[in-house]
Amino acid sequence: MGSFLGSIGRGFRMLFRFGGRDRPGQFWPYAGMVILLSFIAMIGMMMPPVFDSIARMQRFAAEHPELTTVESGPGHYSMTIHGYHPELMPDMDGLIVRMAVIAALTIVLFAGAVARRLHDRGKSALLGLLPLPFIVLGFAIMPQLFHSVAATTPDVHLFMRLFPLLFLNNLLYLASLAYLVVQLVSAGTREPNRFGEGA
Length: 199
Prior knowledge:
This protein is mainly alpha-helical. The protein contains five helices and two strands, in the order ααββααα. It has a two-stranded antiparallel sheet.
């Protein structure tokens, strides 16, 4: 337990150190903590706008029962609002900005540790940047995609152009992330390499 917590502390202490090498036992406890903190932050950021949207839907249902079908019973509740009411949706611009901030902070927290872990394998730290362009492009496309749907008059043509682009971008992001994770999981070199001593 001490080495686990020590690895987490070491990761935070060496946050901006991009030189040297990290063995798997030094990297993964810290990586797990960063992922956990990112998920908690993401949920914390997303829940208030989602709950606000649900509250607006419930008010709308009470004010317009003729446009709403509510079904409830033991263990289930569903509400269907008939018609097009984009004003009931969460503030997607705010959500996307919050998600982008959390993604940026997560990248900052990971940068040094990923660089050192790649160095342990004899790889350049630049390999860690592989998923980054797809993250940036995804955050650039998402607001336009949501606006095309949430507008008073939905722009179907814009949606049909942007959705396949975002879908392809997400596939490439997942492929680049999977490749990077394989590199991070793989064993490092035991002998010294250009980045320092081995284990």
